[in-house]
Amino acid sequence: MPNDRHHGHDHGAAPAVPDDAPVLVEVTRGGLVESRHRGDVAVVDAAGRLVFGLGDVAMPVCQRSSIKPIQALPLVESGAADAFGLGDAALALACGSHHGTPAHVASVTAWLDRVGPGVAALECGRQVPASSEAARTLFAAGGEPAAVHNNCSGKHAGMIATAVHRDEKIAGYVRPEHPVQQRILGTYEQVCGYGLSSAPRGFDGCSVPVIAMLLCNLAVGMARLGTPHSLPAPRAKAARRLLAAMAARPEMVEGDGSFCTEGMRAGDGKVLLKGGAEGMYVAILPALGLGVAIKIHDGARRAAEVAMAAVLRRLGAFYAAAVARLADWFTMPLANQAGRTVGEVRPAAVLDAV
């Protein structure tokens, strides 16, 4: 079982990425394969059994934003979500990496106003909205990027709400020693079945700690979120509530037109998705009892999306109608500046078998 077998893994320097890691995604131009993206795939059940794997499933990875659904568990478990009357939109934002649209910004702003400290308490840093349309609107109105536009501001709002509810100091909630981060660390270990006391660690783009774990254990964590019978009852209840919120409000997890949001819409509650920086992507498949974790070695988001789409198709996670709806992610067309299709991003043969 990956979660048990690797519990005592040496947390020293991560090994170099092997040159023979499998090519998961190819990029074509005309009849030529112009670029290749290598990576690793782990598909695991809630007991830790490896159902399907490619590459090194025991590769230490920084999960980045892909782990947000686990980071959000203490928000619900602590009672903060109920205390502040948080609905599906807020809970989905806590699990998400939003596009900074007016709807996203308004929701986070209203949430933090209700909690008390307002958006001034955010420590995630300023960011131009990920949505180009939202960015144009902001600048046309003479506005400036703020922390609330940061794609992680929903996650941070959840951390602030938890701290306020537990009467903890708000300032410095991103620091590793803060109770908010210590709770999250313990949650990682319990849900993913992996000891992190000596794991390599650093800081994410939004300033919270990032702690490396094995790819297979990240997949275990996602499987347990979707099939939480082995988790303590309050944690299992929190997992079900967060996944229900993601399924109900997928536009708050990322944004319209993104693979994350459109994939969840097409999956109709059977597929929950979350991407992360540097080529990370996870899927939670409650109906199948599986968790999926993918790492693209060169960090390419396009490759992570195409690889995840191919893995989900291989697993039969989508209905046929959903496969047709998501055609542009199973094989992503590449257009030039004139709008002419000149190539595609496609799964390599190792992933394309159905």
Question: Can you characterise this structure?
Answer:
Helix 5 crosses helix 8 (153-165), helix 5 (88-94) packs across helix 11 (233-248) and helix 6 (102-115) runs parallel beside helix 8. The longest helix is centred in the last third of the chain and has 16 residues, at 233-248. The protein has 17 helices and twelve strands. The chain has helices spanning 2-5, 68-71, 73-77, 80-83, 88-94, 102-115, 132-140, 153-165, 179-192, 215-226, 233-248, 250-253, 259-267, 301-315, 320-325, 327-330, 349-352; strands spanning 23-29, 32-45, 50-54, 60-61, 201-203, 209-211, 213-214, 272-276, 280-285, 290-296, 332-335, 341-347. With 354 residues, it is an alpha+beta fold. The protein is globular and about 60 Å long. The protein is 41% helix and 18% strand. It has a single domain (2-8, 20-352), classed as Beta-lactamase, CATH 3.40.710. Strand 1 and strand 2 form a beta hairpin. Strands 1, 2, 3, 8, 9, 10, 11 and 12 form an eight-stranded antiparallel β-sheet that branches.
Give the secondary structure arrangement, pairings included.
Layout: H1 2-5, E1 23-29, E2 32-45, E3 50-54, E4 60-61, H2 68-71, H3 73-77, H4 80-83, H5 88-94, H6 102-115, H7 132-140, H8 153-165, H9 179-192, E5 201-203, E6 209-211, E7 213-214, H10 215-226, H11 233-248, H12 250-253, H13 259-267, E8 272-276, E9 280-285, E10 290-296, H14 301-315, H15 320-325, H16 327-330, E11 332-335, E12 341-347, H17 349-352
